[in-house]
Amino acid sequence: MSEDLKRLAAEAALGEVQSGMRLGIGTGSTAEHFVRGLGARVRGGLDVVGVPTSERTAALAREEGIRLETLENCPELDLTVDGADELDARLTLIKGGGGALLREKIVATASTRMVVIADAGKRVSCLGAFALPIEVVPFGLRATRHSIESALAALGYSAVPALRGGTEPFVTDGQHHIFDVELGQIHDPVAVSEALLRIPGVVDHGLFIGIADAAYVAGPDGVDRLTPAAG
Ligand SMILES: O=C(CO)[C@H](O)[C@H](O)COP(=O)(O)O
């Protein structure tokens, strides 16, 4: 999908930002458009403080002259704006393609509102075409992989978790690793979430359930503002 659509979604979300806000700032290529747009507004006089969801976002935000705080010093946020790898009609998300899912979920959950920005290619009727990222501690990787496989098998999935980075595993900002799991279709995200979170080596996963309040989705015909469908 084109960078233009990502930028359009990001620009639309900037309309929700007001002076005085404490902002969670997401990670990824779409979020980068948001950071650049936010930087331009800050240079124009907008007064906000940002809590970044990754070291990568922090570096870009600093370059843009955005005032940053840690979540430790600023534990209650007004709004988080972040991208997603997939979103469905309920605004359940898959995130973590960029490897920042844990901080992203912590920051979004600390926010009164979370707004997603995405191009229309991310919108799906059923989550799961994008491999689900699962963040795990490095200790006991093989045992954790086995537990993930067993837990998913009990839900009817024959999925093989792939360690991101392979022989040179990807390391998250929290010094963890990520397994990516191809599930195909996730009909019951809550069941998948609960099963994964019962595994001790699993820190978190990329399913965001009941966290997003709205989404700006940009397609060839413009930007749609979505809110979670009931049911
Ligand atoms: O969850 C994420 C990072 O952990 C990103 O928001 C997600 O991967 C979308 O990225 P992009 O905007 O580059 O498509």
Helix content: 25-40%
Mean pLDDT: 97
Any idea of the CATH class of the largest domain? Alpha Beta
Strand content: 15-25%
Write out the strand line-up for the largest beta sheet, numbering strands in chain order: 2-1-3-6-12-13
Helix and strand run = HEHEHEEEHEEHEEHEEEE
Bound molecules: ribulose-5-phosphate
**What is the CA-CA span between the terminal residues?**
30 Å
- The appropriate CATH architecture of the largest domain is 3-Layer(aba) Sandwich
Main beta sheet: 6 strands, mixed
CATH topology of the largest domain: Rossmann fold
Shape: globular
Low-pLDDT ranges: none
The total of helices stands at: 6
Query: Structural class of the helices, strands and pairings?
Result: alpha/beta
Number of domains: 2
Function: Catalyzes the reversible conversion of ribose-5-phosphate to ribulose 5-phosphate.
Pfam family, one: Rib_5-P_isom_A
Keywords: Isomerase
Catalytic activity: aldehydo-D-ribose 5-phosphate = D-ribulose 5-phosphate
